[in-house]
C-alpha cells in the first residue's frame, strides 16, 4: 500500500491459485477488484503513512480487513530480497495462516482527537526550538537573563527591552522573538481546544478517572486516552510492554542479560508517562488544590484508587532513593508501574 500505487495478491485457499494486480490507491478500485475474487474475501495490509481510510472503506462494504503491525510480521531470517510483489504474497500467506498481529483501527473521531494531541506535541517541540534560538542568540552577545524563572511574563518584558545597532542582528532577533511568541499563542489555542474536547464526548469518563493520579493533568490524561484508545485490549501487566517500558532481553541457556527499555509502541504516550513519573518523587502528604479539584469530578472508587496509587508510587520512589538507584532508571520503573495504575483507572467501572 503506497500513496500512488497498490500491489495486491489474492490467494485462493482451496486451489492455491494467486491473483495479482497493480491497482490505484482509490478504495473503489480496490473494492471492485476484490469483488471479482472467489468469496469470502479477507484483506490484510501493512500499517503505514496511508492511514486507515482503506480499512474503513472495506469494512463499510462488508469486507473483512485487518491492518498488520509491520514490526510483528514474521519474515525468514535469510530473506534479503524485498519487493512489493513478494511482500504482497507474504501477507496473503500470513493471512491464510492467521499469523497477523493487527493494530487497532481507530474511528474517525478518535483519529481526529489523536491528530489534535499530536499537533500539540509538535508545537511543544517547535516552542522548545524557538526558545533555544532566542536564548542562544542573546548568549552569543553576552546577554544572560538573571531575573528569576525564564519564559514568564517578566522574562518576556525583559526580552522586549533589547535592541541592537547592527540591522541584520536586530532583524534576526525580532524574527526569533516573534516566532517564539506566535508558537506560544498556537500552543494556547490547542490547549483550549483539547480542554474543551476532554470535557465532553466519549473521553470524559476516562480523563476524569486518570486525573485522580498525581502528575496526570487533563492534557496528559486526554492524550493517553486517545493514543491508547481501547484500554480493555490490554492488561495491567501487558501495558508496560505495549508502551515499550520493559527492559530488552537477550537470554539463552542459563545466562540472562537485560538491556535498556525496548521503546516499542507509542512514543508519545511513553514520554507522557515518563514525564508524569517524575511528579511522584516529591514528598506527598495530602493532595494539592489542583489534584483535589480533579478528584472532585470522579467517583469514590476512582478517588480511592488514585490516592492509593499516588502513595504507592511515592513509596516506590523513596525505596529507590534509599537504595541510591540511578534516578533515570528508577523513574522508568515508576513510569512502568504508573502505566498499570492508569490502566486500572481507565477500565474501572463505577
Task: Describe the protein in words.
With about 350 residues, this protein is mainly α. Helix content is about 55%, strand content about 10%. It is built from 13 helices and six strands. The strands form three sheets. Strands 1-2 form a two-stranded antiparallel sheet. A two-stranded parallel sheet has the order 3-4. A two-stranded antiparallel sheet has the order 5-6. It is globular. The two termini are about 45 Å apart.
Cα radius of gyration in angstroms: 25 Å
Number of helices: 13
**Cα distance, first to last residue?**
43 Å
N-to-C SSE string, H for helix and E for strand? EEHEHEHHHHHHHEEHHHH
Shape: globular
SS-derived structural category: mainly alpha
Low-pLDDT stretches: none
Q: What's the main sheet like?
A: 2 strands, antiparallel
Count of β-strands:
6
How are the strands ordered across the major sheet? 1-2
Beta-strand portion reads 5-15%
**Mean pLDDT, all residues:** 94
The level of helicity is: 40-55%
Amino acid at each position: 500500500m503506497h500513496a500512488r500505487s497498490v500491489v495486491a495478491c489474492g490467494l485462493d485457499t482451496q486451489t492455491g491459485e494467486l491473483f495479482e494486480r497493480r491497482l490505484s490507491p482509490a478504495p473503489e478500485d480496490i473494492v471492485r477488484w476484490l469483488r471479482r475474487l472467489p468469496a469470502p474475501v479477507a484483506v490484510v495490509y501493512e500499517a503505514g503513512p496511508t492511514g486507515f481510510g482503506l480499512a474503513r472503506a472495506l469494512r463499510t462494504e462488508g469486507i473483512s480487513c485487518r491492518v498488520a503491525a509491520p514490526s510483528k510480521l514474521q519474515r525468514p531470517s535469510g530473506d534479503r530480497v524485498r519487493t512489493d510483489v513478494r511482500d504482497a504474497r507474504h501477507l496473503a500467506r500470513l493471512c491464510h495462516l492467521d499469523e497477523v498481529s493487527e493494530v487497532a483501527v481507530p474511528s474517525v473521531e478518535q483519529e481526529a482527537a489523536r491528530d489534535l494531541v499530536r499537533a500539540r506535541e509538535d508545537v511543544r517541540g517547535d516552542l522548545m526550538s524557538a526558545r533555544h534560538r532566542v536564548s542562544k542568540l542573546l548568549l552569543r552577545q553576552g546577554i544572560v537573563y538573571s531575573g528569576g524563572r525564564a519564559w514568564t511574563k517578566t522574562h518576556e518584558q525583559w526580552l522586549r527591552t533589547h535592541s541592537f545597532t547592527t540591522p541584520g542582528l536586530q532583524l534576526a532577533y525580532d524574527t526569533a522573538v516573534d516566532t517564539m511568541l506566535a508558537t506560544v499563542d498556537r500552543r494556547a489555542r490547542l490547549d483550549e481546544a483539547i480542554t474543551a474536547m476532554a470535557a465532553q464526548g466519549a473521553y470524559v469518563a476516562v480523563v476524569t478517572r486518570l486525573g485522580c493520579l498525581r502528575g496526570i493533568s487533563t492534557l496528559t490524561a486526554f492524550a493517553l486516552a486517545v493514543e491508547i484508545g481501547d484500554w480493555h485490549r490490554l492488561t495491567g501487566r501487558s501495558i508496560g510492554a505495549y508502551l515499550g517500558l520493559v527492559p530488552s532481553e537477550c537470554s539463552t541457556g542459563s545466562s540472562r542479560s537485560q538491556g535498556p527499555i525496548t521503546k516499542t509502541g507509542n512514543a508519545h504516550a511513553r514520554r507522557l508517562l515518563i514525564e508524569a513519573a517524575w511528579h511522584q518523587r516529591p514528598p506527598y502528604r495530602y493532595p494539592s488544590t489542583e489534584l483535589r479539584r480533579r478528584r472532585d469530578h470522579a467517583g469514590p472508587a476512582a478517588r480511592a484508587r488514585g490516592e492509593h496509587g499516588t502513595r504507592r508510587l511515592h513509596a516506590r520512589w523513596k525505596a529507590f532513593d534509599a537504595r541510591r538507584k540511578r534516578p533515570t532508571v528508577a523513574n522508568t520503573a515508576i513510569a512502568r508501574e504508573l502505566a498499570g495504575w492508569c490502566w486500572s483507572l481507565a477500565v474501572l467501572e463505577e
